[in-house]
Design goal:
Length: 190
């Protein structure tokens, strides 16, 4: 029922916080700068995808929002130990901000297949999540370069890595949904 509270608000809060922490842990892996690209390749963008794949739109959005708020107040949680407002104000800032929308989009798509979303749906959802991140990140990047076409072409270097990440996230999420269907089921009001 819309507006109904979940039966386990403490469990929802715990899942939200755990996924925010998981996104932070993925930041421990350093970003890899590819020649000619101003934006590094990182594992951290897998976190919002996995959050959306497992938590659903509302909780995934909350976990990414919590993570972004912690970064904004200065905690060095982004890959390379970055934190504060500066990472949001640089060329990669749009991709980081896009994680919020990405997690929500993935969650909305996955919720359609609950209680047991199948791998094709998870692949589609995570593809959509990455596409949304590009739709936010590329124009933001172009604002720094002054050339949308160049930013779009330069972002092509990330496609192979992102394809591998979306498959990996989808496989992990499928395994989690098989193993813990109750923990990943649709919360009331979502």
């Amino acid at each position: 029922m819309p507006g109904q509270r979940t039966a386990q608000p403490a469990a929802d809060l715990a899942r939200t916080v755990v996924f925010a922490a998981f996104i932070a842990v993925l930041g421990l892996f350093p970003g890899l700068f590819i020649a000619g690209a101003a934006v590094p390749v990182v594992l951290q963008n897998m976190g919002p995808l996995l959050a959306g794949s497992i938590l659903g739109a509302r909780r995934a959005g909350a976990s990414v929002l919590l993570f972004l708020a912690l970064v904004a107040i200065g905690l060095p949680l982004l890959s390379g130990g970055r934190g504060g407002i500066a990472p949001f104000a640089g060329p990669s800032g749009g991709f980081v901000l896009g994680w919020l929308l990405s997690a929500v989009v993935v969650g909305l798509i996955v919720q359609r297949g609950l209680p047991r979303p199948r791998l094709p749906l998870l692949l589609l959802a995570n593809f959509a999540g990455i596409a949304v991140d590009y739709l936010v990140g590329i124009p933001y990047w172009a604002a720094f370069t002054g050339d949308l076409g160049a930013a779009a072409v330069q972002s092509l270097v990330f496609l192979p890595g992102d394809a591998v990440k979306l498959v990996a996230v989808s496989l992990v999420a499928a395994a989690v949904h098989r193993a813990l269907p109750v923990a990943t089921s649709r919360p009331a009001g979502s």
